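Try this one yourself first.
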């Protein structure tokens, strides 16, 4: 019985970090691509675009960190 609960717990950890990091990875890729496209179209606004891009990437990365925290809580609590 203990082996079954441990395996379910490990599966939950894997799903939490796996699914929780897919969306931020896609978002960061889209943000980077669109920012490069915008900078190519309007080079004068590159500094403003870069600042907004970095801020948006930080927010998207925070979601992945939340998923990691949830996975660690599942694993150790």
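Now uncover the answer:
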């Amino acid at each position: 019985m203990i082996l079954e609960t441990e395996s379910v717990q490990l599966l939950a950890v894997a799903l939490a970090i796996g699914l929780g990091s897919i969306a931020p990875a896609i978002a960061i890729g889209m943000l980077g691509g669109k920012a490069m496209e915008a900078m190519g179209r309007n080079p004068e606004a590159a500094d403003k675009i870069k600042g907004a891009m970095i801020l948006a990437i930080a927010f998207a990365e925070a979601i992945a960190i939340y998923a990691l925290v949830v996975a660690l809580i599942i694993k150790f609590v």
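Discussion: The chain is about 90% helix and 0% strand. The helical segments are 2-41, 46-76.
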